[in-house]
Amino acid sequence: MNAEFYDIRCVESSNLSITVENGNIERPKYDFARVKGFRVLKNGFWGIFSGNLEDEEGLRQAEKNAINSGTSAVAQAGKGGKFILKVKKNPADVPVEDKVEFLKEVEKELKADYVVSTRVSYLENVRKFEYKDSNGTQAYYEVPRTGIVVQAVGKDDTLQFLSKRELKPAGYEIIGGNVFEIASEVREKLGELLKASTPPSGEMNVVMNQSLGGVFIHEAFGHAVEADHVLQGATILAERLGEKVACRDVNVYDDPSRHEFGFTPFDDEGVASEKKAIIENGILKNFLHTRETAAKLDGRPGNGRSQGIAEPLVRMSNTYIDEGEFTFEELLEDARDGIYLVGSRGGETNPATGYFHFNAQYGYLIKNGELAEMVRDVSLSGNTLEILHSIKLGRELKFDPGFCGKGGQLVPVSDAAPYSLVKAIVGGA
Amino acid sequence: MIDKAVKFLDSRTDDWEIHSASGKSISAIIEKGRIKNISGGVEEVVSVRVIVDGRVGFASSNSIDGIMEVSENALRLSRISEEYLDELPAGGYTQVDGIYDKRVENVDPFWLRDIVDRLINSCSDRVNPAHGTVDVGKKRVKVVNSAGVDLESTGTACTAYLEAVVEESSGFEMVQSRTLDMDVEFVGRRASELALGSLGGEKIGKVMCDAVLSPVALSQLLFFTLYPAFSAENVAKGRSMLAGRIGEDFGEFSLLDDGTLKGGLATSPFDDEGNPTLKTIIFEKGVLRSFITDFRFSKILQIKTTGNGFKDEATSYPHTSPSNIIFDFEDKSRSIEEDALVVNSFIGAHTSNPISGDFSLECQNSFFRGKPVKSAMIYGNIYELLKKIQAFGKDVRQVDNTVTPSVRFNDVSVSG
User: Fold this and answer.
1) Where are the domains of chain B?
2) β-pairing, A304-305 with A283-284?
3) How much is the pLDDT for A428?
4) What is the spatial distance between Cα B372 and Cα B200, in angstroms, rounded to a whole number?
5) In a 3-state reduction of DSSP, which class is residue B315?
6) Are B60 and B29 in contact (CB under 8 A)?
7) Are residues A355 and A311 part of one domain?
8) pLDDT > 70? residue A429
9) A377 pLDDT band (50/70/90 cuts)?
10) How far apart are CA A223 and CA A356, in angstroms?
11) Taking a contact as any Cβ pair under 8 Å apart, which residues of chain A between 147 and 206 contact chain B?
12) Same domain, A17 and A127
């Protein structure tokens, strides 16, 4: 083949999911897929093909799509290697009946007179990944992911829902007493939430808990340092490398090697995982890269990730804003009057403009530096850079797992933050 | 292979269903005004649903060669399942038009490159066509079950999307079509207009004003706040504000689920369970008339099935999902944008509360009295908002599931 580069990926994934809903095992499901993806870089242009074909035929099909010329290139990936995540308790060895029984026990923990609907879901996945390219890189890994999602709906004057999850790159050993604690917390908070009032709106002091702060750093900032947005000219941070983009105490990292939900031993381009500094002491240090963006912008690859064998895009893994020095009480005191927001129902951002929006699960008003009544359905929006210039960081970093969507692809991630204080626009229903 | 599986399923289960979805697609990605890559692909997913002693099991694989294993896995899961169902539907189909364009079969990378060039060239010289995609695909769905369903349908889908950026402003637009006739020039032109028009926006502050939501914005909002509420499953499970309220008045609008709409993005002759698609009136002049449902929840709620048993992904169980939702209102004015906040799209619509219908969303490409707005959040509750409809515009189009023009609402709360 007359090409600068090619690579071949084979991803095998098996999933079991079981849901107990209102006392019944619903939609138990098993799926298996083994898929192959081929990329050919020719005259600086990518031709790509996916399908279960022999290597030679797959590459031929990919090459057929490489009809243009362009400026694309690839950075080296290193040698690759092999990694198999060892688990203490293989989920496949646990009879499905035991899993069902456990879920039913957890669901009982959610019951209360105000709870009208409950759901506990169990997920188990194994991803086997095989990679080779024309530079001789070869990588292989097997990583299992296991976890539980707990949700309850309560009814009073309004319907409210609350959910929490525990998801890890691990085996069945993570399923235990902690799940009951999560369930009882959901039940208790839901009871309070039904009596909560609607929040005030406008610009105000906001103390974010770890989970919401994590979503903030992921949504509002993380997406803007994905280097594909830089190449598109569609991020407010495009020309800002080496500049001060946040106040001095802000340090932000992305670390796929950390054993949280976004863990991968290699990315989907065969690059071994390593921790990357995004912001250190308020200075923008690095963008996150695929092998292509790294070649164009002189960065380090390692964040090329795919759902299945879709095209690897620049993605985050385990992203966090590091701890500062304030205690939670000091942040409340500093806020004086404002709102304390907890948890998240997800968020979205536009890296080109820097505006973000996300939703908290619930909150409390802060009056005279102390927590006051609970509020529900609170949203937060603002401009990333304005906020990072005035953020105050607390302690007690905590990771929260989730799935991040981009370009129609979902990948497992986690994000984390300490308690923090910002000024942002709050809206409520 | 299939014959062997059918024999196995006949002997070991009370009822079974084999669903297979196979597709072929080709797409291109645009990066900063240039075509960056072209990808093609073929895929297939075969899934088996079984009923044994009234209990449902399900499994899938991406290869027809794996169908025996899939059947065994489905059977195994039926033993622990409490997903109860006593039979599968006898099914049927509705004659529908405009869902398949033969020309898609012949699309090659050169055709795709030309259309991408047209899209890029239709952008204003002043913007950066930062990111975009053109995607063309064909999908064949086959459903066979033990109750006599044996159906097959092939459809095509084409989309073009572009985000234009200028300084710290951006705008996006898209076309979605069942045929190759995509007005890509509209996409480039409109994305450019939105990006340029939004330059130098000013804050609006906290106000109560009339708001006009574009078809894109409405589609985002309704999908996450209203549609879950008229799904029979959510009604049955206590997750809907509409439960037990058939016959009640919710405003003056009409809303129809029409799986048979000519050329509709979600049109098909039958749903993923082999039931014929239908037209279902959900709201008629504001009065809640009916819910939409898949086969299982039609039995639980003892209502007629509406042909809305769709799979989110080929690997998932069919469940109640909207097809084409047609939003309608009597008063259709020519000009509805005067003296209002005009919102072209939202960020974060998926964070709305699907149960209570409460939302608070950041507006993108919004204009107040014709001037660009820097940042604004609209908040409220969908059921209250639906009572505040003032007029419909005339710019009807389909965005994802929703067919609607721009709509003007009275007294919407804005903060920013």
Assistant:
1) 2-195, 204-416
2) unpaired
3) 66
4) 7
5) coil
6) no
7) yes
8) no
9) confident
10) 10
11) 153, 155, 158-161, 201-202
12) yes
- How far does chain B reach from its first CA to its final CA, in angstroms? 61
Q: In CATH, what class is B2-195?
A: alpha beta
**Model confidence over A378-389: pLDDT tens digits?**
888 888 888 999
Residue B349 or B153, more confident: B153
Residues A106 and A218 in one domain: no
Coil/strand/helix, residue B416? coil
Separation in Å, CA of A230 to nearest CA in chain B:
10
Asked whether residue A135 falls in the same domain as residue A173, the answer is yes
Looking at residue A36, what is its pLDDT? 97
Unique residue bearing structure tokens 């695929």: A290
- Taking contacts as CB-CB distances below 8 angstroms, the residues of chain A near B221 are none
Nearest CA in chain A to B362: A357
| Phi–psi pair at A99, nearest 5 degrees | -60, -45
Domain final position from A194, A218, A240: A194
Instruction: Name the residue with tokens 């998932």.
Output: B316
3-state percent helix, strand, coil for chain B, nearest multiple of 5 = 20, 40, 40
Together in a domain, A181 and A228: no
Give the nearest chain B residue to A32 (CA atoms): B61
Of B36, B40, B239, the CB nearest to A153: B239
Residues B275-290 have a mean pLDDT of 98
Per-residue pLDDT tens over the stretch B211-239:
999 999 999 999 999 999 999 999 998 88
At A356, is the pLDDT very low, low, confident or very high (cuts 50, 70, 90)?
confident
- C-alpha A42/C-alpha A67 separation (Å) is 8
The kind and range of the H/E element at B229 are none
pLDDT over 70 percentage in chain A: 100
Q: Which residue segment(s) compose the domain that A125 sits in?
A: 5-194
pLDDT at residue B348 in the model:
83
Mean per-residue pLDDT of chain B: 95
B415 with A96: Cβ contact below 8 A: no
